[in-house]
């Protein structure tokens, strides 16, 4: 016999939250995700009344779910929402997600703006893969660098106060490990989820940072959100996939361990930040003038690397 939901005690449970032991029906599960997102927003002071929020939307489950939740919760806070989609220029992959995003925004009556790597940086991802020196720079490091800058430029051009992205707790743990294993310890100091205000005035927030990726998939599915399931053809080049499997395996045998790691990593982030206090992110790139911790920012370094390699063809 199916068990009853532990919360409402009326409907059949559809979800077993292993780390808390709860059994939840569909509506109580959906409510729990939206409530948790609101708690995260409030805990880290992510949003204020009347702010204009740009939401980075790829067409995957996380970003469409974030758009869905923010649309619901922003009504009471008088926030305006604009969806931003970045077209990386990956043949056969981005086309499907673009049409999913367009349909979703039309149905939810959300303004959508699309920006492409080709227009912003002179190379699509497919071109960048051919132009890069093969032994250096993984596809995801080029793409991640470009995406961060594309979202910043898009948000600023739309006069947004806040840029919201759908990074979840799993992404956070993976990024922490990547920074740790690549020697980028100072970056750990910038990971604490309280938003930092950049020199442009833009604040960046991650309202899903305390949610497991698996719960966001379940939320998107039960909220009737149609999302892209195809994987990017370049995905497997990333060490991120290996950390994802590592944490998922640990969580299977030790439910809740991801939350414990998240809390420890936040403490470490604060410690690193206090030690690295003289490391000032408000420096600007000597080439493009954008915020950077080095003399030349990572976007300019990547573009220069691609330009140099283009000439060597
Ligand atoms: Fe870009 Fe890597 Fe994501 Fe593909 S998997 S879209 S290359 S960051
Ligand atoms: Zn630069």
Automatic annotation (TrEMBL):
Record's protein name: tRNA 2-thiocytidine biosynthesis protein TtcA
GO cellular component: cytosolic tRNA wobble base thiouridylase complex
NCBIfam families for this protein: TIGR00269 family protein
Residues involved in Zn(2+) 2 binding: 285, 288, 297, 300
List of residues binding Zn(2+) 1: 5, 8, 25, 28
Pfam families referenced in this protein's UniProt entry, alphabetically: ATP_bind_3, TtuA_LIM_N
A Gene Ontology molecular function term of the record: tRNA binding
Superkingdom of the source species: Archaea
Domain called tRNA(Ile)-lysidine/2-thiocytidine synthase N-terminal: residue spans: 53-244
One of the protein's GO biological processes: tRNA wobble position uridine thiolation
SUPFAM superfamilies cross-referenced by the UniProt entry: Adenine nucleotide alpha hydrolases-like (SSF52402)
PROSITE patterns, per database record: UPF0021 (PS01263)
Keywords, sorted A to Z: 4Fe-4S, ATP-binding, Iron, Iron-sulfur, Magnesium, Metal-binding, Nucleotide-binding, Transferase, Zinc
Cofactor(s) needed: Mg(2+); [4Fe-4S] cluster
Domain 2-thiouridine synthetase TtuA-like N-terminal LIM: 5-30
